[in-house]
Every structure is written in structure tokens, then in C-alpha cells.
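Sat 14:20. Reprocessing the chain from the morning session after the first attempt stalled halfway. Input below, unchanged.
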Amino acid sequence: MNAMVKDLALIALFAALFTTAGWASADAQFLSVADENIPDAMALSRSLDAVMDDATTCRQENRELSGCLCGKQSIETMSATYERMIDKHPEWAGKTLRFDADNTSHAIQLPTYKQELQRIQNQCG
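Finished this time. C-alpha cells:
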């Protein structure tokens, strides 16, 4: 698989992590986020948004996405945010979080989030 196809696949996987509530997979274990925990869920969302912004910049610069993302602060932030949120909310592990914020319904598939994060970390070394 050439670098461009790999890059597009990675972008598609990241995009799948942050979805509207109705688009998550049918076998996902949904967990509605309590109002008081929405800021924590939004922290996960913002960390993913930052990685997506970096991925967009990499593509605009015609750089291979997997190599370009290595060492980016957004990846470190995404990892730290995930670990902090799972430590704080262990019941979130393995679930798809559903919540409303900023006049939008959100769903974050944490199993995919974790899997892609680990894949990038393994690829970066």
C-alpha cells in the first residue's frame, strides 16, 4: 500500500473516532456522559481535533501522515488526555461516549481511539 493510501486510511480512522451519535457502530457499548462529566469528554474531543488539525497540515505539506505525526505535541496530548480520563472515569474504558455539547451530539469510540493511538505510538517508536 502506498503512502498516500495509508495516509487516507489513517485520516478515515481518526474521523471515525469522533462521530455524530447515530454513526457509531451497531455493536458499540454506548455510555451517556453525565452533564458534570461533559468537560472531560470534550477534552478527549479537543485532543482528537488537534491530531486531525496536524494530520491536515501534514497532508497540505504533502508529507507521509504516519511519519509526520510522530513527535507532534498533539499525539502526546491525545495519549495523556486518554490516560487521565480513563484513570478518572474507569467506567468509560471500552465504551462509546455519547453526549451533547456546543449544540451538537457527539460520540467518541474509545476502543478505536485507544487502538489508533497505540498504533501511532508503535509506528513512531
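The radius of gyration is 14 Å.
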